[in-house]
Amino acid sequence: MKQELTLLDVLQAKVKINEYIKNTPLIRAYNLEKLFNGAQIYLKLENLQHTGSFKIRGVANKMLNLSKKELEKGVTAASSGNHAQAVSYMANKIGTNATIVMPENAPKAKIEGTKEHGANVVLCGFTGEERDYKCNELIETYRYSLIHSHMDPYVIAGHSTVVLEAWEQMNFKMDEIIVPCGSGSLASGAAFTMKQLDKSIKVTGVEPASVPLFTNSLKANKPLTVNMGETIADGLRVSKAENINFNLISNNIDSIETVEEDTIKKAVKEIGLKEKITAEPSACVGLAVLFENKIDTSKDRKICIVISGGNIDASLYSEILAI
Ligand SMILES: *Cc1c(COP(=O)(O)O)cnc(C)c1O
What percent of the chain lies above the pLDDT cut of 70? Predict the structure, then answer.
């Protein structure tokens, strides 16, 4: 299996997935800007992407690189939510069947979203290990192809297209790009790709303080497994760092920051009320890190924040807006 990532992989992914994804809007956040010190803040709106998150990018690239024979047998994936929806959607688009293993406590919006596109959903346990075990069982029995959510260069290359697109939309003038970091597939691709394109652009990854996976892994200089604390950012609940993501991040990223739960909620609320954007908690850590004054927001700096998804249960959303 392919293990290395090159800029050519990213450029090929961009061409390959083009007809399956939306070139999502990039907006300037004039109202949020007023809260900071004069930096220009741009938001790349992947909450408006098909299935409500950037995940379709990597999944599309992976599935479009499978053989006809593999597609005839079908695909499987283990996911806590957005990856599941993306696999279900793409399987439907290209005419293959998908069986997705999801945790019993996945948000309702994400389970429903997955079923809606036609995939079989198997609910299994609460941890990644339990889901992986079930997935392997399915692969043994049915010879499905695994669409892994982050341990795959095709997936990483597909995810990387979001920062490439944002860079183009900003006319190649960008001082910093901020992305959320869970398993690190988005952050690893973003960091690698931006450093290939323009080394002067700062790339920052953000994770919840309760799951400091890459903060700790970078300190230890090796991929770690950390204790998983509670976080509202369900897309960032990943306790084990994999080699491929760790290597790309440690070789390319400028900084990894953490944010507190209260700031994540504040970011969900502010982006909703000030910019009229429905974003899920995992997608708002990039704004939260500005609220925690961990980013240089000095005058005229051009900062791009990737708003990675918008799938949030109505009950949780109303709770946050009412804080
Ligand atoms: C998957 C996901 C993330 C985290 O991406 P990783 O590649 O796992 O780091 C962030 N936000 C949303 C909305 C996601 O679906």
Answer: 99
Per DSSP, the three-state class of 128 is helix
pLDDT of 1 above 80: no
E strand spans, the chain: 26-28, 40-45, 75-78, 98-102, 120-123, 145-146, 176-180, 202-208, 255-259, 302-307
Q: Is 217:224 a contact under the CB 8 Å cutoff?
A: yes
Distance (Å, whole) CA 195 – CA 187: 12
Q: How many CA atoms lie within 13 A of 308 on its CB side?
A: 30
Pocket test for ligand 1, best of 147, 282, 311, 312 (most atoms within 8 A of CB): 282
Closest CA to 60 of 50, 47, 69, 68: 50
Ligand 1 and 186: CB distance under 6 A? yes
Query: 85-103: per-residue pLDDT in tens?
Result: 999 999 999 999 999 999 8
Kind of pairing between the strands at 202-208 and 255-259: parallel
Instruction: Report the share of the chain in percent with pLDDT over 90.
Output: 93
Instruction: Tell me how far apart the alpha carbons of residues 170 and 166 are, in angstroms, rounded to a whole number.
Output: 6
Q: At what angle do helices 185-197 and 7-17 cross, to 10 degrees?
A: 110
pLDDT digits (tens, 9 = 90+) for 36-78: 999 999 999 999 999 999 999 999 999 999 999 999 999 999 9
Q: In the annotation, is 115 catalytic?
A: no
Please write the tens of the pLDDT for every residue from 135-176.
999 999 999 999 999 999 999 999 999 999 999 999 999 999
Catalytic residue among 53, 79, 80, 217: 80
Q: How far is ligand 1, taken at its centre, from the CA of residue 166, in Å? A: 17
Residue closest via CA to ligand 1's atom 3 equals 235
CB contact set of 237 (below 8 Å; sequence gap of 6+): 80, 182, 211, 228, 231
CB 229 within 8 A of CB 210: yes
Q: Atom 4 (ligand 1): residue with closest C-alpha?
A: 182
Instruction: Please give the number of the atom of ligand 1 that sits closest to the Cα of 183.
Output: 8
